[in-house]
Amino acid sequence: YGDNYNVWNSNVAVKKVYRRTLRCASVSGAEKQTTLKLQMERHDYDEEYETRDEGGDGWANQGVGLFVSFSCTGTCTVSNLVISGNAMAINYQSSDGVEKALSKNNIDMTVGGFAGRTMNSSGTLIFSGVDMKDLIVYGGTSTGGLLGLAEQTGGGISIQILDWSISELTVSKNVTNDGSTGGLVGWQHSKSSLKIGDETNPCSVDGLYVSVLGTSADSNNAGGLVGGVNNSDITVTNVTMNQLQVNGRKSKASSG
Fold first, then answer.
1. Spatial distance between the Cα atoms of 231 and 151, rounded to a whole number of angstroms
2. Beta bridge partners of 27
3. Whose CB among 42, 139, 214, 222 lies 3.0–4.6 Å from 254's, allowing a Cys bridge?
4. Measured distance CA(247)–CA(250) in Å, rounded
5. What is the C-alpha to C-alpha distance for residues 4 and 147, in angstroms, rounded to an integer?
6. pTM (predicted TM-score)
7. What is the DSSP letter of 96?
């Protein structure tokens, strides 16, 4: 919610935005394989960022996902879900409808099937029995099938993605010189650790397509499971991958 103009005012800008943090102990389907079909598209025009870059009141799109920002402390669990559909953020050059590549001015925009980012989180976040099926995740600067940006506050956060599967997932974006794209996590930030899979439950990929389309190769990254890693520990266990494609145009690094 925020400080808006009157409804019939021709200026529809949001002058000031106030954010509350929703802290969740758990998110779970009522039974195994509860499906969430997303139909999310966020459209922005480049002019909306101009005044912000100059210290003004320009709009800042925080991103797209079932949760734009998922915050947890202590131990949080996400379980028994199938995420499908579309989660997309598209930036246009102007009202002519031509898409423009995102730049560092749009660094706050994160996109993920479950959450755009884990802002203000600490403790342990556990995903168990969460599948991504027939899902398209597009746009942003940190973009992942499950999480766009895994970040921390204070002592850091431990993220565990256990007992999961991917079937026909596409994760992609169009950027200039800054962005990370991954099948599960777009960018794994410092002071956070990531555990993918465990010894008990096999995890599988059957149809995963990850791409980053850049105009320069400054810091664009694409990875099958994780796009970019910044001083973080990652372990991968018991994962079988089939039909994996990772593509980068003018990317710093692209790898399965």
1. 12
2. 78
3. 222
4. 10
5. 30
6. 0.83
7. T
